[in-house]
Predict the 3D structure of the following.
Amino acid sequence: MPVAPGLLEMFSVGNGGSWYMDFDVVFGIDSASFSAGVDRLNQDQKTHAALFRGDYRDDHASGTWEVTGQSPEFEFQSPSVDKWQGSIGPDGKHPTGDPPTDNVLTLSIPSLELAVTIDGSALPTVSPAVEFYTRLALADGTASLTPLAVWADQSNLTPAEKSIIDRLILPQVFLQLGTVLSGHAIAPQTADVVGSQVTFTATEALITGTHLVVVATADTGTAQPVPEAWPAQPVFAVINRVFAQHIAQSAADAHKNTVVYDKTDSGGGVSFSAKAVVKSIDKVTIDKSDATSWSASLDVAFDASASMLGNKCALKKSSDSL
């Protein structure tokens, strides 16, 4: 599983985790880091053309839309009631009632340039601010973004422009951006972790107010309660100690019976041979105060012998626990 660049910390957690969920790995990213990825896509000519520009046409009208100026930014917040009820949903209609509040992200587009032609007559180009609302959701172990609605600031538009935006432009923007956002999902994945095949499944996906967080468990039976608080770093990965220790021991077990030294020298009628084999690496532990400091019990079998004029004499044969 690809891990976002950032802080890797290991927490010693107890049963008092306030989130009431278990984890092996947690990934977190704040809105600024999330927006930085959107900015890179917008600055690239190919992805800008594919994601942030489009056209539309019907029997009487045609035109284009394009994100211009400042790149869109993600905000981890819900829309106001007025914006929500003034937006356009997937059915092309205005939503009713209060906006959703759980796990909602807003993609804020400062300027969406709209060029419209009606029955052959071009309307003045307008560039309203636009907001795209989406929700972080979890289903069948897969975390994904679900498009909700799109809103445009129509305060400076004429009735004709408002009609075109609601009827033609916003549904097209919703379809294109919605397809892009909903295509970014974190599904169960099997990864090689220090030589061990481990399957990760997302169990929780949430917005904490500052971070988008995805909680995952592995198929190792090592899940532990989440820590009382997430790290404050913009991008982070948290691994629980029991899972880390399990992986370390699995890696150690893979080296059982590994020959680490095997050499024979001879000359002048005298020969010498020595061989060292790792029998086991047990009791792998992680230091409670320093997650980068690990220790283990190493059992090595060492065998050495020498012969002179063909007469073999065993010098040493033992199993030493270091």
User: Anything to note?
Assistant: The helical segments are 31-43, 45-51, 81-85, 159-182, 241-253. Residues 159-182 form the longest helix (24 residues).
